[in-house]
Amino acid sequence: MSLAAPALLATLALAGSPEDSTGGLGRYGDDLGQRQTKVFRVGGYFRLRGELQHDYDLDRGPSPSGQYLYPLPLGNPSRQLLHRADMRLRTDLGIYAPRGWVAVKVRVDALDDLALGSNPDGVPAATTTQRSPSPVLAVKRAYAELLTPLGVLAAGRMGNHWGLGMLANGGDCMGCDSGDASDRVAFMVPALQHVLAIAYDLSATGPFVPDHARRRVIDVEPRATVHSATFAVLRARSPLSLDRRRRAGRTTFEWGTYGSYRWQRVDVPTSYLPIAADLGPVAPQVMVRGYRAAASDLWLRLTGKWFRVEAEAAYLWARIDEPSLLPGVEIRRPFTSNQGGFAAQSDVGKVGGRFGAGLDLGFASGDRAPGFGAYPGLLDAPPQPGDIEGPQAQAPWDTAVNNFRFHPDFRVDRILFRELIGTVTDATYLRPHLDWHAWRHAHGRLTASLAGVASMAVEPTSTPGGARGLGVEVDPGLTYQTDFGLHVAFEPALLVPLAGLDNPYLGMQARPAQLYRLRLQYTF
After folding, report:
1. Do residues 442 and 479 make contact, with C-beta atoms less than 8 angstroms apart?
2. Is residue 127 part of a domain?
3. H or E, element range at 245
4. How far apart are CA 237 and CA 113, in angstroms?
5. If residue 181 lies in a helix (H) or strand (E), which one and from where to where?
6. Which band of pLDDT confidence, cut at 50, 70 and 90, is reported for residue 277?
7. Residue 260, in any domain of the structure
């Protein structure tokens, strides 16, 4: 029996974002309080991406359980060349009362990461059009904000972001693919140049049955509700204020911290297991769960005229008294989890100067079980030494899940963590980077960049090759950005794998992988 405890823990970060005024607790409602000249405000972007991927399998063969590091071309696996292209239209809509005390905000994604050329009408070779996918529109956020004499009251399904986005990430970056949202009621109070925030989330409810009119649903096991409560303290300036202080040569210190607690009394696992028969919820499916989890996070940022240093550290704890997923089957030993993660970023360079540089680093705690444990399935078989993925807990001999997982939209590189593993977990990395603003004109600029990422595993038993070294990646880039909304980026990459990605069971050494990506974005 396996347990995906990190999947539950990864959503525990429920606090706010100093960067995004719409994405996190502590920043909700910061555009209220002024008489509005516009009732509607619309923003967003249209994004097109295309890329060529060469040898993402690293030509290392399958693991002992038959796992490949990355899918292979069906017709000619030895060719090792894949390509993909997709699109997204994102729209953020704000509706404001004339006095500026009330706002309703909605985020809608159309054709979200839709693969170009997908959904052909009829036989692919004879198609003349593409069918609309289902669903065409995805409503990611819908919530309301009210400015009161004491603070801001927000309620609805709202963005969830904190700090660097290492743990909770709203998915607002240009290359983001997911993003967190929470069904939340939150209240933020300004006090002594800080923001105090408290929030309650309905993180999960159900199982449900339809009412008589089949228009609404009824939660037939309220004890299975997953509750989350959070308290946060934040001192952060708006991006505009921070930029003004930096240009004036003033040093600014910002910080934030939060604590969050989540709990669930009972569970109905047949409502979400992929192999469960669709017989509807019945009493014998209810089982005692006894799930408790806590998360804490600290965010710091120091900004001066020539530099920025920003860091985030998090600790997660959880205990599940009954980890079994099968009603009637008991596991008498509780599962526990202790996870820690840290990320830091830095930039050095004159504001508006031609050159900039910095050093980023990160750490995600590991687990000694085989496989990285980035995205284990609920019912995956136990991993063998040399496997790439698998559950990190296996009753009765292994009842701990200790690998910390960065949010997948917290981007460190372009191949290893982003594509092959899926996120930073059970690893450390060091990332020096350099930017050169090669050309400027009245409406835009051209920037060349270069970054190197050296990564190592925390627990060598987790890697397929049984060694700490994971890889060295080189990520150059060329970006052209205008002030009227056009953004073009060319993002190649080269990954040189190390012994941790070898396949000693077949005597095969991992070979380099390459990426060529072109991204075109129109912002409005």
Report:
1. no
2. no
3. helix 239-247
4. 33
5. strand 181-191
6. low
7. yes
pLDDT in tens, 197-209: 999 999 999 898 9
CA distance 426 to 458: 5
Q: What is the residue type of 229?
A: A
DSSP states along 99-164:
TSSEEEEEEEEEEEEEETT-SBSSSGGG--SBPPPS-SEEEEEEEEEEE-SS-EEEEEEEE---TT
DSSP state letter for 76: -
> CB neighbours of 66 closer than 8 A, spacing ≥ 6?
none
Number of domains in the chain: 1
Q: By three-state DSSP, how is residue 224 classified?
A: helix
Q: What is the CATH number of the domain that holds 347?
A: 2.40.160.100
Structure tokens given for 83? 């390509």
CA nearest to 88, candidates 134, 49, 130: 49
Residue type at 360 in one-letter notation: D
Q: How much is the CA Rg of the chain, to the nearest whole Å?
A: 24
Distant-in-sequence, close-in-space partners of 241: CB < 8 Å, separation ≥ 6: none
In this structure, is the dihedral angle defined by the CA atoms of residues 98, 200, 271 and 109, taken in order, positive or negative? positive
Largest CA distance in the chain: 71
Q: Is residue 130 part of a domain?
A: no
Write the DSSP assignment of 22-60 as a string of letters: TTSTTTTTTT-SS--S-SEEEEEEEEEEEEEEE-TTTT-
User: Which residue do the tokens 């014998």 mark?
Assistant: 284
Q: Name the pTM for this structure.
A: 0.91
Q: Write out the residue range of the structural domain in which residue 504 sits.
A: 5-121+135-523
How many angstroms separate the first and last alpha carbons of the chain?
49
Tell me phi and psi for residue 5, to 5 degrees: -60, -40
The rounded distance, in Å, linking the Cα atoms of 113 and 485 is 20
Q: Are the beta carbons of 508 and 61 closer than 8 angstroms?
A: yes
C-alpha span between 1 and 385 (Å, rounded): 18
Interval 211-251: pLDDT, tens: 888 889 998 889 999 999 999 999 988 888 888 888 888 99
Dihedral sign for Cα 370, 264, 170, 194, please.
negative
Distance CA(454)–CA(319), nearest Å, equals 34
Chain Cα centroid distance, residue 127: 36
Which of 28, 12, 21, 19 lies closest to 258, judged by CA?
Answer: 12
Pairing type for strands 427-441 and 355-364 reads antiparallel
Q: Which tokens sit at 140? A: 């990611």
Cis preceding-peptide flag for 396 (omega within 30 of 0): yes
In a domain, 128, yes or no: no
Kindly give the pairing relationship between strand 194-204 and strand 217-219: unpaired
